[in-house]
Amino acid sequence: MKSLKESIKKHAISFETTEDLDPIIEAIGDAKIVLLGEASHGTSEFYTVRAELSKRLIEEKGFTLIAVEGDWPSTQQINRYIKGYTEEEKDVRGVLKSFNRWPTWMWANEEIAEFVSWLKVHNEQKEASLKVGFYGIDVYSLWESINEVITYLSKTKPDSMELVLAKKAFSCFEPYNRHPESYAMSSVNLSQACVDEVSKLLTSIRSHEENYKDPQELDLSLKINAMVVQNAEEYYRAMVQSDDLSWNVRDEHMVEAINEILDYHGNDAKIIIWEHNTHIGDASATDMEAAGMINVGQILRQQNRKENVYAVGFGTNRGTVIAADEWGIAYKQIDVPPAMKDSWEAALHNTGAINKLLIFNEENRHLFNDWIGHRAIGVVYNPEYEAYGNYVPSKIGSRYDAFIYMDQTKALTPLD
């Protein structure tokens, strides 16, 4: 058995330019679902390299859908902007201001502004069926989504049963003043909480889909906003029971949203998914499995043929990152220290302090499947405590199909 160091040296490919991404583009083959990770939510290179990969997948392999770890209502502002569905005179930064829920920097940043501008120009040259869409698949926008449902139904179907149900659901949540934690705590003592209201709303919309057909995807938006309301309600109830349970609810919702987007666009649709490594890398190849946790990458692999799903992980040794000391407070630029000894990132650094990529396949995957710590930085980050919670024990070769490593990285640039 070769040592990890020897295996990295043998199989790593130097990565400096977008042309060096050719091996990954080739390995993706005819996959219809490509998952692009990140080791933090605040590193510039993770965003820019994912953008370059996405551009090539769009231009060379016909991908037309991008799904991100963001809220549906906010990302719809991007989708409408790049597809020309709106006549509002907004520039790209004006559109990105719709990301006003903390952590705003995840999507309201200069790196995303540049990519969205590229998408708009690309779409202006394409017929409607070939335009690229941009969609949020997260679960947090309960109140925003129910407002979207009510606003849309009030304009289009003011006499519909769906509007009655939406207003009833809104009334159920209204006492909690847009504080999900308050609803979560209250739901412990309520036999059904708001479960019936949100379930009836989504069921009714699904049963009457033919009434909402729309060439500008407002029908898809209605359905997914209703889905967010239902699944967010379950997520916030799960929060007070178990972090692991709420994690599973969230990732199952994201997969449900991905599948709705794919179904809406037809059998030939291909989708690129941007999320943290902890969501896109197969959870069954990490210690998450022992805790009963699942994730997007694992579920999509289980639901689809092996050759149709391709996951790319990302990592760095050191640099700077945008994050916060605590949940909900102002972000700042934080120094990321060199990777811990005996971690995956340290092994990559110690085989040469250069950017590199690795392709895992049936011939070499086993060489990268010994358990090893793999760094994960969230929106809350304290480097002093990194050893106590920022390294996920992983079988890297099974967790991903490829890995992009950048030895030193810098913080992304928030718009504000």
Summarize the topology.
Blueprint (H helix, E strand, L loop, with lengths): L3 H8 L1 E2 L7 H7 L4 E4 L7 H18 L3 E4 L3 H12 L8 H5 L13 H15 L8 E4 L5 H15 L4 H13 L6 H8 L7 H13 L10 H22 L3 H23 L5 E4 L2 H4 L15 H8 L5 E15 L8 E5 L7 H7 L5 E4 L12 E4 L15 E4 L1 H4 L2 E8 L7
Parallel strand pairs: 2-5, 2-6, 3-4, 3-5, 6-11
Antiparallel strand pairs: 1-8, 6-7, 8-11, 9-10
Helix pairs in contact: 3-6, 4-6, 7-8, 7-11, 8-10, 9-11, 10-11, 11-12
Tell me what you see in this structure.
The protein is of the alpha/beta class and 416 residues long. Among the domains are: 18-132 and 270-321 and 397-416, Rossmann fold (3-Layer(aba) Sandwich), CATH 3.40.50; 142-245, no CATH class. It contains 16 helices and 11 strands. The strands form 2 sheets. Strands 1, 2, 3, 4, 5, 6, 7, 8 and 11 form a 9-stranded mixed beta sheet that branches. Strands 9-10 form a two-stranded antiparallel sheet. Helix 4 (72-83) crosses helix 6 and helix 8 (161-173) packs antiparallel against helix 10.
Any guess at the CATH architecture of the domain at 18-132 and 270-321 and 397-416?
Answer: 3-Layer(aba) Sandwich
Relative strand content: 5-15%
What about the largest sheet? 9 strands, mixed
Rg result: 21 Å
Number of strands: 11
Roughly what percent helix? 40-55%
Task: Give the termini separation.
Answer: 51 Å
Overall pLDDT confidence: 95
Instruction: State the order of secondary-structure elements, H for helix, E for strand.
Output: HEHEHEHHHEHHHHHHEHHEEHEEEHE
Task: Return the CATH topology of the domain at 18-132 and 270-321 and 397-416.
Answer: Rossmann fold
The computed structural class is alpha/beta
Total helical elements: 16
Spans of 5+ residues with little confidence (pLDDT < 50)? none
Question: Mind telling me the CATH class of the domain at 18-132 and 270-321 and 397-416?
Answer: Alpha Beta
User: What overall geometry do the principal axes of the alpha carbons give?
Assistant: globular
